[in-house]
Every structure is written in C-alpha cells, then in structure tokens.
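Recall the central idea of this unit: under ordinary conditions, the amino acid sequence of a chain determines the structure it adopts. In this exercise we apply that idea directly, starting from the sequence alone.
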Amino acid sequence: MSNQKVIVVGAGVIGCATAYLLARHGFAVTVIEAEPGPGLMTSYANGAQLSYSYVEPLASPATLKKLPSLLLDPQSPLRFRVTGEWAQIVWGFKFIRACTQAHVKFATKALLGLSFLSRNELELAIERDRLSFDYSRPGKLVIYNTPEAIEVAKKQMEFQRTLGCQQTLLSTHECLEREPALENYQSYMAGGVWTPGEAVGDAKKLCDDLVRHSTKMGATFRYLSNVENFIVQRDRIQAAVLESGERLEADYFVLASGNGAASLGKKLGLSLPVYPLKGYSLSLTLRAPAKAPQVSVTDLRRKIVYACLGNKLRVAGMAELVGYDWSVSEKKLQFLMQCTEETFPGACDFHTDIAPWVGLRPVTPTSLPMIGPARFTNFLLNVGHGSLGFTLALGSARLIVAYLNKQTALIAQQGRSFKP
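Accordingly, the structure predicted from this sequence is:
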C-alpha cells in the first residue's frame, strides 16, 4: 500500500477508473475536472457496448481502400472535413501510414490483451463494490451485409481465435434465431459473428459509481477546475497550476483528459497525436420491448450499434474527422432514427425525449492509446482511447497502477504496446 499523492487530470471514464484503482491501491488521489461533474463529455452517452473482442484498429488496408468512396458518400458513416489545423493534417498522414496488415495484427493483439485485462478488472470491481450502471452480459451480434464482408470477418475471427477470442460465424437464419427482432432487416443480412459474454452498460453511471467508491476510499474530486499549466523542476513535475492560479503539488501526475490532452501536453513539450472523432447517439424509450434487440447488435453496413439499457435503447454511430465541432446535425439524428425504425420497427418511441448526444472520441492514428510515463519521471499518460474508452478503462487504469507500483511483469506483458 502507498500514501503517495497522485493528481489525475480528467474525470471521464478513463480518469474515474484511474482514480478508483489508484485509491483501491492506497494512493492519495485528487482528480481535477473542468466540467461540473464526472463523465459529462465523451463518456456521457456513448454506444454503451463493452466490446472486448472487437478492438480491430480503424487504420487498416480495408479502410484505406474504401476511404475515397466513404468520404465522397454523403450518407457515409465516416466523414472528413478539412479544418486547416496542422494537427489534423499530421494525424491524417500518420493514419494512412498505419494502414498496413502488419499494424492490424499488432494492434489487434495488443488491444485484445488490454481489453481482457479490463474485463477482469471491471468484473472484480463489480463483485467487490456492487457497481450499478445498467450492466449486463447479453452477448454481441455483428451483422454483415455481403458475402465479401463475411469473408473478411471470417479471416479476422480466425486470427483472433489464436488470441483467446470465442466467436462463432452465423448464417442469416442463425442470426435471426439468436436475435428474432432482426426479422424485418434480414434482406440486408448475409450473416454475422456471435460473441458470447460481451457486455453493455451506461458509461456515465459507471463514472458516477466509481467516483462514489473512490471518495469513500479517500479520493478528492475537484470540479469546475481547469489545469492551465504545470510547474516543472528538472525532470519532474512539481505542481499543476489551475486557471485560478492555485498550485497543487503531488508525487505523481496522470493526464487522462481525453480531447484536452494534446493542448496540455504541448505545454510540456509533448506532441500527442490525439484528435477528436465525432459521433452521435440517441437514448430512445422502448415502446415495445419485445421488438427491441435482446443482445448487443452492431450493423457493420451502417456502422451503428444498438444496446438496451433498462427501458432505453442506446443507438450510436458515425465517425467524423471534423475538428473540435460539438454542433448537433439534425440530419444525422434523423438518420439514426430512420435506421432504428428500419432495423427494429415499432420498438421505440420517437416522439418523447430522444436524448440526442454528440461526443468527440479522442483517437490516435494507430488506435493504440498512450499509457505510461512520458518525458518526466513522475508524469504518466492515459489518453487516446478513441471509441474504446469504456471498454479499456479499467485495464488502462490497472496499467497506471502497475507503473506506480513498479509491477514489472504486468508492464512487460501489456505496457510496451501502449508506450507513449
């Protein structure tokens, strides 16, 4: 056990998970968050899927091949708009360079290892502290619309089987047996991949519960507080400086500020390739629960995910590289509602509160988050998780604990792939 002081910058799901496990291991934790509460930005209403076996990086030869058509199609789930930012240009070049089969295999293996670690840590936390965040393990069905897409999925599935994934290739008929609510959508289905044990949950509620238990263990959360800069003394960070001018000293500092990481890192001389990937979601009230999916569903054709959370259906999709743009597109929201009605007709109520949400996922060109020491002896990164933040949160936090406790075996096994 340790009583060393750690300041965590950021109270999204990554920061909250980091604070929770650090407090669990005896560190004196203070979390600094610019928003009025935890999980109010990217984590607030994400896709709700804990997809431990679906971590293949966005950068791949298949994505590169389809990029021109994807970017020119106005209905494309992937959209790019030139902002003129140098950070976007650099990110784009690095992304293209990462679109190799060798990188896909390396990143998939690394991310699977981290996701399995995260699953284990989350299940321990649920058992130990009875975390309540609409968690369930209904399994996940990914549906594909062409035989060619099925063949690509089959190859990836065979590779992932060597890494410990348990997945089954299903025909269209078998998909409908697994999820009867897809009956009206079967003309768009060529088959699917079923993964048992995959889970769903509400990331915002998880943040709230992690904060509650961290606070019980002595952690402090300071909201409406923005880190403006750091005081550096030789090779160490001495203090974080808030906008108010207040200086907060600690033994260690962990940057877990998601989309804010690049600008804060720049003040420390770090060039962090983290750029926002915009997405949308709706939280729809179920009108006819029997017509809604009972399992977690991903429609790969439209890049849309569906997950039931209590009496709500969380629908999420889109990936837009459009800069730090928080505006809500009514066309995108209408598209999500149209897709939901076409896929699960009659299941949802579109006339009451649809709870529209926009989130900016902090993603790296390689899809590999940066976790571990960076430049200074007492400064660690836990950033760049993209759309996998919810899935990887507890595993990433466990790696931070391993670095501070000098647990070399875990670092050697997991940490090297995510080295900043």
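The chain has a mean pLDDT of 95.
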